[in-house]
Specification:
Blueprint lengths: L1 H15 L5 E4 L2 E4 H5 L1 H5 L8 E5 L5 H12 L4 H4 L4 H4 L12 H6 L6 E4 L9 H4 L3 E6 L2 H14 L9 H10 L7 H11 L5 E5 H6 L1 H11 L6 H10 L2 H6 L33 H14 L12
Parallel strand pairs: 3-4, 3-5, 5-6
Antiparallel strand pairs: 1-2
Helix pairs in contact: 13-14
The protein binds adenosine-3'-5'-diphosphate.
């Protein structure tokens, strides 16, 4: 009974939250509060031992965040349960009335791990100047789009996506928050030629998580035993993270998990359940045009 009451209250809160407002920085659509505080974000002072986890939204950021935190804590799950992932690793550019990722990062002792969804050209320059290590996670555009659509439906901090058909066009036009998927994944891919960036793929994580976790460990300059790596694979599996209140955003009042859970499906190829045949054709044409100028390639078939 008590549990039901809590759930009803949370739903009520969600419906009363005001819709998200957006604006732009250098042509990239971003949340309005963030745009209004852009100077503060741009002038953020990174430190040489900062680690940055970067991604386009819904590419598997939380998965990488939890893996990194467990590696840093030698696979100690209890230590990783010390706080929600959003507090353990501040979300750099996120600005709310009461919390700002920049303030959280500034208050945090080093070494810090931070998260960003900024496209490469909008990353505060101090990250390049201090030569910080960066892990970038990318996901194929079709699954990324479907995941983003459902996330915008359930998260009041992002604009209402409208119908799937409407969202499909918005996504292709690049007028979604944090900008065009194409520009994001290609921009970061190019940057890795001149900066220490470990560029990972959601699809590779699905195929062989232990191999990708080992890559992350090596990038962080650590050496963990095989059994610790196996433990990290287990603790960061979809089912375990879905049940973990420190990774599943279940206590985030802006998210309505009844509409669509944060830990939604966690699979590859879900786009096949969402795209119409006509949309798939339109998408493939658009994709071919936009990916001619890059060596980057994705697998979209599960
Ligand atoms: P779906 O919506 O397709 O299920 P982000 O953390 O960048 O917001 O990405 C969220 C997406 O990653 C969601 O995709 C979520 O289910 C998926 N995800 C999160 N943790 C995962 C895990 N351990 N294994 C597989 N997918 C995971």
């Amino acid at each position: 009974m008590a549990k039901d009451k809590v759930e009803v209250t949370r739903e009520l809160d969600w419906t009363l939250l005001p819709p998200a407002e957006v604006s732009q920085v250098e042509g990239i659509v971003l949340e309005k509060n963030l745009c209004n505080n852009w100077d503060k974000i741009w002038n953020f002072q990174a430190k040489p031992d900062d680690l940055l986890i970067a991604s386009y939204p819904k590419a598997g950021t939380t998965w990488i965040q939890e893996i990194v935190d467990l590696i840093q804590n030698n696979g100690d799950f209890e230590k990783s349960r010390r706080a929600p992932i959003s507090l353990r690793q501040p979300f750099l550019e996120w600005m709310r009335s009461t919390v700002s990722g920049i303030d959280e990062a500034n208050a945090m002792p080093s070494p810090r791990t931070l998260k960003t969804h900024l496209p490469v050209q909008l990353l505060p320059p101090s990250f390049w100047e201090k030569n910080c290590k960066i892990i970038y996670i990318a996901r194929n555009a079709k699954d990324n789009m479907v995941s983003y659509y459902h996330f915008q439906r359930m998260n009041k901090r992002l604009p209402d996506p409208g119908s799937w058909d409407e969202y499909f066009e918005t996504f292709l036009s690049g007028k979604v928050i944090w900008g065009s998927w194409y520009d994001h994944v290609k921009g970061w891919w190019k940057k890795k030629d001149s900066h220490p960036i470990l560029y990972l793929f959601y699809e590779e994580m699905q195929k062989d998580p232990k191999c990708e976790i080992r890559k992350i460990m090596q990038f962080l300059g650590m050496n963990l035993k095989e059994e610790v790596l196996d433990k990290i694979v287990y603790y960061t599996s979809f089912d375990v993270m879905k049940k973990n209140p420190m990774t599943n955003y279940i206590n985030d009042a802006a998210m309505n998990h009844h509409l669509s859970p944060f830990m939604r499906k966690g699979v590859m190829g879900d786009w096949k359940n969402q795209f119409t045949e006509a949309q798939n054709k339109q998408f493939n044409e658009n994709y071919e045009k936009n990916m001619t100028d890059t060596s980057l390639s994705f697998s979209m078939e599960p």
